[in-house]
Amino acid sequence: MSVMKAVKVWEFPVRVIHWVNFLAITLLCITGIYIHYPFLASAEMPEAFIMGKMRLVHFVCGWALMIGVIGRIIWGIIGNKYARLRTFVPFTYASGRENLVAVLKYYTLITPRMPPRLGHNSMALMAYLGLFFCAAYQIISGFALFGQYDVAGTAYGLTGWVFGFMSNGYVRLIHYFMTYVFIAFAMFHVYAMWISDVAERDGTSGSMFNGIKYGDPNLEE
């Protein structure tokens, strides 16, 4: 039987990056939907400059998300064992594969309990890896679309290569579609966090505030 102890799992930089990314993605989704469908636009109120303000917030939050993603990669190299990058590819090491199979059995109702783990379980880590690639696409395509106003500028010079793979229309369409991928992920993320707290009582919901989870500190991650 595992010993339940309070363990400092998520370090301060991880928690800061989590909330920066959360705020950035939330505002990016809101402003992105408005940019696609400007329901507040009015020819009678040109001085309000609503679209300009929405685009400004969208662009600033794009920078924030990029900094957050880069920061998380850096901390994945220098952070503790729960933050390291290799955990995001659990199928590449033995304990990760073992946990992946155990979690799949839990989700398919073959076993009644989630396998104990202080960090993220392997299925969650693979979902985060997928989200990372979605965020990377959003950052690259977002700056590429923004950079089209000046094709000689830095933004287009660094990201314009994306138009070599697909047209402007497809880049923009996928960029917009990804908004709903993030919204769907957020809903499932909150649900899974709540379920983990109720079923396992491991402190998941509070861990992104205080960094502490409850479990066996000797568990292999």
Mean pLDDT: 90
Number of strands: 2
**Total helix count?**
7
Strand order of the largest sheet: 1-2
Give me the strand/helix succession. EHHHHHHHE
CATH level 3 topology: Fumarate Reductase Cytochrome B subunit
Q: Give the proportion of residues in helices.
A: 55-70%
Largest sheet: 2 strands, antiparallel
Class by alpha and beta content? mainly alpha
Q: Uncertain spans, ≥5 residues at pLDDT below 50?
A: none
Oligomer: single chain
Rg for CA atoms: 20 Å
Shape: elongated
The CATH class name reads Mainly Alpha
Tell me the fraction of residues in β-strands, as a range. Answer: under 5%
The CATH architecture comes to Up-down Bundle
CATH evolutionary superfamily: Transmembrane di-heme cytochromes, Chain C
